[in-house]
């Protein structure tokens, strides 16, 4: 496989962009080698600058549930471009977007649009503090909620990949407002509430974790979070930036039947453009400026292009519920076999092949995986034209554009790897 063009771009990139990338995990540090520079995408595939083609299971890290360049999104973008790309004044489509979100995710009675998942979680957390008059947050080890100062404590995704437990640059006072507990441990959450319940503003959780690899909640865990937060006057925040519109149209909260107080959305909601949202109980959301005292703003929030793309995406999903059956069936096909020494976790169309004996239920068990073995698997798959996330601690995504043939090729390539290593 030729990589000369990617190598040339990467050399240039490293001189002017830290690590050569605009987001750390793209740099392939978790697996070694040179990141592929992508020229274009179409359906289930991406094509790099050397002309290699790959079946893409990263899907822009989640947003592309319909694959690359779905006609509905491209058409909506072209049309929106004709009328202007930004006004900094309200538009009707933002209202339609808020109404549609409330319809799809009923717990989100009111919604604010922002530009990234990080902004959404940062704002939801500030709102929870403003609403409760409390400072502390419970989060879970291995969950990633964007690069919000106080949430970069024992975080997943790139922090897990690079082995950074707690980032430099976060004042101890900020990190001190966060209580990090093991995911899936009801006892740990009960203990924290027993000790400091009256100081806890919110529990924030990825209801199905994607950012230490895919880790589902054990039975009763989400229910316990709901019960404990309610009992102690804290808010429950579901960070559905990854799971929203992915695990079901109405996200993990629909799939598991739990109603959080606040929800953050991102990724799929923007149809591939930078957009995210937070929302929830109307009495809580009414605390946001200009109606309430909690300040949050954004020059490009509700950007017309992003809203047009997102609306087109969500309307398509509403009109085509069979998408969820398709991607679930394809994902089941992809994970219906167990390579030796590998634990396969899957919920809906999110999956991870953990290179270790399972079960993988939290960060302790995830981090025991053999990342070197994963790296070899990753590069074998890349050579065979399959683009997986370049880290053991990320979820893969199946889109509606992935064909049975794509999945068959992927499984064949994977089997070949394991046959070769036995
Ligand atoms: C991706 C992600 C974020 C951060 O979103 P950005 O748009 O990258 O800032 C937050 N929470 C979860 C669960 C995510 O998967």
Structural summary, described in words:
There is one protein chain. The strands form 3 sheets. The chain has a 7-stranded mixed beta sheet with strand order 4-10-9-8-7-5-6, with helices on both faces. The longest helix has 18 residues, at 404-421. It is 38% helix and 15% strand. β11 (343-347) and β12 form a beta hairpin. With 422 residues, it is an alpha/beta fold. The protein binds pyridoxal-5'-phosphate.
CATH class wording of the largest domain: Alpha Beta
**In percent, how helical is the residue content?**
25-40%
Order of strands, widest sheet: 4-10-9-8-7-5-6
Can you tell me the number of structural domains? 2
Major sheet size, sense and barrel closure: 7 strands, mixed
Element order: H for helix, E for strand: HEEEHHEHEHHEHEHEHEEHHHEEHHEEH
Oligomer: single chain
Keywords:
14 strands, alpha/beta, Aspartate Aminotransferase, domain 2, Aspartate Aminotransferase, domain 1, binds pyridoxal-5'-phosphate, 422 residues, 7-stranded mixed beta sheet, globular, single chain, 15% strand
List the helices and strands and how they pair.
Blueprint: H1 4-16, E1 38-42, E2 45-48, E3 53-56, H2 71-81, H3 92-104, E4 110-114, H4 117-132, E5 136-140, H5 158-162, H6 172-175, E6 178-181, H7 186-196, E7 200-205, H8 221-232, E8 235-240, H9 251-256, E9 262-265, E10 276-280, H10 282-285, H11 304-319, H12 322-334, E11 343-347, E12 350-354, H13 363-366, H14 371-383, E13 386-387, E14 396-397, H15 404-421
Parallel strand pairs: 3-13, 5-6, 5-7, 7-8, 8-9
Antiparallel strand pairs: 1-2, 2-3, 4-10, 9-10, 11-12, 12-14
The structure holds pyridoxal-5'-phosphate.
Pyridoxal-5'-phosphate is lined by residues 116-118, 121, 144-146, 206, 210-211, 239, 241-242, 266, 276.
